[in-house]
């Protein structure tokens, strides 16, 4: 058995782990990076990048189908599933290679292969070959797709999103369980590529949306395009011939058994914590078994253990994983001198069509009566109609009294760009009035944002009883 004594040990070489390693090293510390699973980040291997490659192919097919509305007529549409998946895998491998090259530049003496588990708060056992003693430790083990137990009998026809990107060809049909980010993105992309798709959602939630008005707009839009079954409970799945018999119950209590070629479990991911032996630690855990931590320092209690990335279960997004890793590694490197790091305005984007985005504080988390809502429909928005992308709804939230912009939820064209503008405004604590003083070109989709801001501004001025609206007694005026 080998023994390795270091200042900082980082468990996991994904986005958060690599950021933590670099941050800890910047303090001149002796750092070891431990990885037991496949090298390459979740984003590059099975997440952001391969999914966007599949979506790009779907967008191309959809554009051809939409062209006649502009008076443009191409030949018969032919979708080559094998060619699509070959490009997805080839480009995916290229992205992964870039990550691996970065890992390989880390000195070999700072890399350790194997799965780590805690012996104590300052000691790790890595497989059966090495004990690592460290003054501080960063947990950055990522997450894995969740497999609902009711789908277990689907056997080899049960898939998770990771497996989609290993396909040699597109399937004929698939049931997507979950209307979250993964379900919406992959479900719609496969539908547009000619796969018979049904998306099943347990409730009325769609992706990160919590605003009922925006959520209803999204449900209507996606329901018009593909087979979307919300408020549907999956009761079981059985391997059946060349596919799966899926048993469900709708909101009216009606049960169905339907046949699909495959079932894709897209109902979320779970933190990779099971094999870490957290019971050997004195740190507190939440109801999911995830270590409780300070989101601004990533420290678990007052210990020398820090947590970062998808494993924290807080904001499972690449840019958040990088920030959390940087903060955790920085504090692990200077431990016990722990400091608050920069946490940016929440920003969540779903690359379906129309896109979905959420910025800042969600509708669900805002205090009723404390904010005004401004909205715009994209149905009659000029540039959106020009492009035949006039679908969706944007709602912005502004604080009564101060007029400060708090957040927004939307589904609409080019939402990824609107969301960035709004996130920057939110992080800079801009008011609705200050945002309306910014330039708006014509004709652009951002003019729709201006309409929503004007609507919010009008409600801030006129939407309250007079006694609450007076300048002498309203906070922030």
UniProtKB/TrEMBL annotation:
The taxonomic lineage of its organism, from the top, reads: Bacteria, Pseudomonadati, Pseudomonadota, Betaproteobacteria, Burkholderiales
Name recorded for this polypeptide: Dihydrolipoyl dehydrogenase
Q: Which EC number applies? A: 1.8.1.4
* Residues the record marks as active site: 442
The positions annotated for binding NAD(+) are 178-185, 268
Its keywords, alphabetically, are:
FAD, Flavoprotein, NAD, Nucleotide-binding, Oxidoreductase
Q: Which NCBIfam families does the UniProt record give? A: PRK06292.1-1
Boundaries of every FAD/NAD(P)-binding domain copy: 7-325
Q: Which superkingdom?
A: Bacteria
Similarity comment: Belongs to the class-I pyridine nucleotide-disulfide oxidoreductase family.
């Amino acid at each position: 058995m080998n023994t390795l004594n270091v200042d900082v040990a980082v468990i996991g070489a994904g986005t958060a782990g690599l950021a933590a390693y670099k941050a800890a090293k910047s303090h001149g510390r002796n750092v070891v990076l431990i990885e037991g699973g496949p090298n390459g980040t979740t984003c590059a291997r099975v997440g952001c990048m391969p999914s966007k490659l599949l979506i790009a192919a779907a967008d191309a097919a959809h554009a051809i189908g939409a062209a006649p509305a502009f008076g443009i007529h191409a030949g018969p549409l032919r979708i080559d599933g094998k060619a699509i998946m070959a490009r997805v895998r080839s480009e995916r491998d290229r992205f992964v290679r870039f990550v691996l090259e970065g890992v390989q530049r880390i000195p070999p003496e700072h890399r350790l292969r194997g799965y780590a588990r805690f012996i104590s708060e300052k000691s790790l056992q890595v497989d059966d070959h090495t004990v690592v003693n460290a003054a501080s430790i960063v947990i950055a083990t990522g997450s894995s797709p969740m497999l609902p137990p009711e789908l277990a009998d689907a056997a080899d026809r049960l898939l998770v999103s990771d497996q989609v990107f290993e396909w040699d060809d597109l399937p004929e049909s698939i049931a997507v369980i979950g209307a979250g980010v993964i379900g919406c993105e992959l479900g719609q992309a496969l539908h547009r590529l000619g796969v018979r798709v049904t998306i099943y959602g347990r409730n009325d939630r769609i992706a990160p949306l919590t605003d009922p008005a925006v959520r209803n707009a999204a449900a209507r839009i996606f329901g018009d395009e593909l087979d979307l079954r919300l408020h549907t409970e999956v009761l079981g799945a059985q391997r059946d011939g060349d596919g799966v018999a899926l048993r469900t119950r709708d909101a009216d209590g009606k049960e169905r058994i339907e046949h699909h070629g495959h079932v894709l479990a897209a109902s979320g991911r779970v933190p990779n914590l099971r094999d870490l032996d957290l019971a050997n630690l004195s740190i507190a855990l939440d109801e999911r078994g995830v270590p409780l931590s300070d989101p601004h320092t990533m420290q678990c209690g007052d210990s020398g253990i820090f947590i970062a990335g998808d494993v924290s279960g807080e904001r499972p997004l690449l840019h958040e994983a990088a920030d959390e890793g940087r903060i955790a590694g920085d504090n692990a490197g200077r431990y016990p001198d722990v400091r608050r790091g920069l946490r940016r305005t929440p920003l969540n984007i779903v690359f379906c069509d129309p896109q979905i985005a959420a910025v800042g504080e969600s509708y669900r988390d805002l205090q009723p009566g404390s904010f005004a809502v401004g909205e715009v429909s994209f149905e009659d928005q000029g540039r959106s109609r020009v492009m035949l992308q006039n679908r969706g709804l944007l709602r912005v939230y502004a604080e009564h009294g101060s007029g400060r912009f708090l957040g927004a939820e939307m589904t609409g064209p080019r939402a990824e760009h609107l969301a960035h503008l709004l996130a920057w405004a939110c992080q800079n604590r801009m008011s609705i009035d200050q945002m309306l003083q910014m330039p708006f070109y014509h004709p652009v989709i951002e003019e729709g944002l201006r309409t929503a801001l004007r609507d919010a501004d009008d409600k801030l001025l006129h939407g309250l009883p007079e006694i609450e609206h007076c300048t002498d007694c309203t906070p922030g005026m």
